[in-house]
Amino acid sequence: VADRVAGGAVTPLVYLHGITGVSDDDPIVTALTAAGHEVFAPLSPGFADLDELEDLRDVHDLALFYDDLLDERGLDAVALVGHSFGAMVAAELAAHVPTRVSKLVLAAPFGLWRDDQPTADVFTAFPTEIQDLLWANPPDELDSDPVVSMLIAMVQGLTTVGKFIWPIPDKGLERRLHRIKADTLLVWGTKDKVVPASHAKLFAAKIPRCRVELLDDAGHMAPFERVDEFVELVGGHIR
Amino acid sequence: MKFEWFHLMPYPDLPDDFRERYRSVWVDPPPHLYDPVRGHAVYHEYLDELEHADAMGFDGICVNEHHQNAYGLMPSPNIMAATLARNTRHSKIVVMGNSVALYNPPVRVAEEFAMLDVLSGGRLVAGFPVGTPMDTCYGYGETPATLRDKYHEGVELILRSWQAEEPFTFNGKYTQLRYVNVWPRPIQKPHPPVWIPGGGSVETWQWCIEHDFLYAYLSYFGYQAGKKVMDGFWETADSLGVDRNPYRAGFLQFVAIADSDAQAEELYGEAALYFYNRCLHVWRGFASPPGYTSVETMRRGIKSQIASAAQITGGSSLTWSDIVERGYVVAGSPSTVVDRLTEVVDSLHVGHLMVLLQFGNLSRETTMQNTERFATEVMPKLRDKFGEYEDRWWPTESPVAQ
Fold first, then answer.
1. Distance (Å, whole) CA B118 – CA B400
2. In sequence order, what are the residues at sequence separation of 6 or more whose Cβ sits closer than 8 angstroms to the Cβ of residue A5?
3. C-alpha pair distances (Å), B63 with each of A43, A54, B92, B125, B278
C-alpha cells in the first residue's frame, strides 16, 4: 500500500479516496494539507496491484485491514475522511471498530441500496461514459482520449471497487451503521448521479450522531468540484 | 478431421428495427420480444436440425450456455443435451459448455454431466467455459475480480469428484462441502474429455495445455481474425514442449453452401445480416467489466479489445460482401467452401471444425439443405486430413451397445 503523508501537525486526519484513486498531487490532499492538517492518505489495496486483494475477500476483511494499518501507524482514534468508495470503507471501519474513529466525514458514500433510489452502475459506464456520471460539470481536460496506462489504472481501481460492491453496493452496512460512535458529517453533491443525494437521509437515520451538508450544483466528485468548501467543512467538523 | 454441428439457438423474430430501438440483444433485451408459443416451435425446429446432423454423420452436435440472450436461447444446455441423448445414436454430444462459476455448488455440473454421459452411453464431451461478461457478471451477478479464480476452483472440484474413489471433503475459497460424492458416475474413465472454449489469453492456453484440455476458439469473426489467436495457442504449445497435434484445438466457423457463390447470397444473405447486425448488437457497456480481463491481457491487447467491442456494437451495419470477404461466413459453391475450409484448417491447424450451419433467422429448410450438402459434398473431401494424428480429446469407444 502506497503511503501519502503530507503537511504539518495541527489536526491529523486519515483520508480514504474514492473510485478514481489518489495521486501525489491529489487536489483534496493538497488542499487539506494547505489548511494545516497532517494527512495520511493511503492508496487502497488493489488500486496499484490487484494481488494485494488476494486475502481481502470482503468488506469485513477490508475494514480490518485498515484497522491493522492504523495500528501500525500508531493512530489510535483518528479523524477519518472518506469519499465515494473510500467513504463506504470509512463507514465500515467506524462500524467495525468504533473506538478507532474520533470524527468521521463521509462524502457521497456507497453502501446502501433502495430500489427506488438506485446507485448508478459505474462498471457499465467504464471507460466511455464514466466521466459524465462522476461530475456535475466535467472538467475540460477529461475530454482528451484516454490512454492505455490511464485505462489500466482505472480498470484496476474499478476492479477493486467491484470486488467489494459487485453487483450492487449493499453488503450489510445498514445493519452496522448504528455501531458508529464518532460525530459524523455527511457531505453530498445535490447533483450526484452515482449515489443519489437522497441516500444522505438513509445514512443519517442510522448513524447516531450525524449531520448533513449538501453542496449545490456538485456531483459525485463534489469534494473535487468544491474543494475549498469541502476542506472548510472538514476542518470545522474535526476541530 | 472431425466435424461438429453447432447450434446457438437464436430467437428468429427480432424486429427489423431492433438495432435502432433497443440497446442490447444480451442482458437487457425487452422480455416482450419473446413469444413463448413461437419459442415452442423454434426449439423443436432447432432440435430437429441437431438430430438431422446426427443422421447425416456429423461427429458431434454442440449446444452451449447463454443467459438473458436473444440469440442464445439455452440458459441450460444440459436440458437440450438430455433430449439429444435420447434421440441420437452416433454423434458425440458436445456441451460447450457449463459456465462452472455460475453453479452453486459446482458439483451440480459434475452430476448433470455424469447423468448425460450415462444417458448417452458415454458420448459426452464436457465443455467448461468461464462464460462471457454478459452471462456471468451481468446476468448472474458474478464479481469480475474473482470470477476466474472461482471458475478454476470449480473445475478442479468437478474433475476430482469424477475421479475420487471415496467421498471427500472440499474446503475451497468459494465452495465448502463436507461430503463430495457424485452419483451417478460418468461412463468415460477417468472422465469425459474436457474442452475449454476461451478467448485469446496466454493464461488460458497454458492452462489448457498443462491440463491436456482441448482449446476451442469460438469466434464469430472467422478464420482470418482467428489466425492470430490460434498462432498464439500453438506457440504456447511449442514453448511448453507438447506436440502440435491438431486435435488439441477446435475452431468455430459459419458456413453457407449453395449451387454457386452468387446463389449463396440469395439463400443466406438475410440470415447472415440478421445475425451480425441484430444478434451481435451488444451494448458496449456490458462488454468489459473491470476485472473480467486480466491486466496482463489488457496490456497486450487493450486496443484490439476495445476495437472488437466497438465492432460488435458496431457503428455501421455490415453487408453480405463484408461478411464473406472478411471470412466471417465461408460461403459459396461446395468447391469454394472446400477450398476455403482447407485454408481454414491448414492455416489454423485445427482438427476439430465446429460449424454453424444455422445462424440468425435461417429457415429450417435451408438449414437442412446446408447440413446435407456439408455432409455429402464437403465433409468427405476434408475427412482424411490429419489422419496421422491420434485424437485423445474425444470420447473413447463406449462399453454400451448403441
1. 9
2. A38, A39, A40, A41
3. 46, 35, 11, 11, 21
Distance (Å) of CA A162 to CA A54, A170, B146: 14, 12, 10
pLDDT in tens, A174-231: 999 999 999 999 999 999 999 999 999 999 999 999 999 999 999 999 999 999 999 9
- DSSP-derived letter for residue B327 is T
Probe site for chain A from B26, B102, B295 (most A CB atoms < 10 A)? B295
Phi/psi of residue B139, nearest 5 degrees: -65, -40
3-state secondary structure at position B73: coil
The whole-model pTM stands at: 0.94
Out of A75-89, A122-136, A177-191, B211-225, least confident range: A122-136
* Nearest CA-CA partner of B290 in A59, A21, A81, A89: A21
Give the count of beta carbons closer than 10 Å to the beta carbon of residue B169: 9
Residue carrying the nine cell digits 448488437:
B281
- Beta strands per DSSP E along B198-310: 214-217, 249-257
B289 vs A: CB within 8 A: yes
CA dist A6 to A22, A38, A79, B83, B265, Å? 13, 6, 15, 68, 69
Collect all residues of chain B within an 8 Å Cβ-Cβ radius of residue A53.
145
Question: Among all residues of chain A, which has the CA nearest to that of B305?
Answer: A148
Place of cell 441516500: A199
Assess B318–A contact: CB distance below 8 Å, yes or no: no
The Cα A216–Cα A211 span in angstroms is 16
Chain A residues with a Cβ under 8 Å from any Cβ in chain B: 50, 53, 57, 121, 123-126, 128-129, 148, 151-152, 154-163, 166-167
- Residues B33 and B11 sit within 8 Å (Cβ to Cβ): yes
Cβ atoms of residues B28 and B281 within 8 Å: no
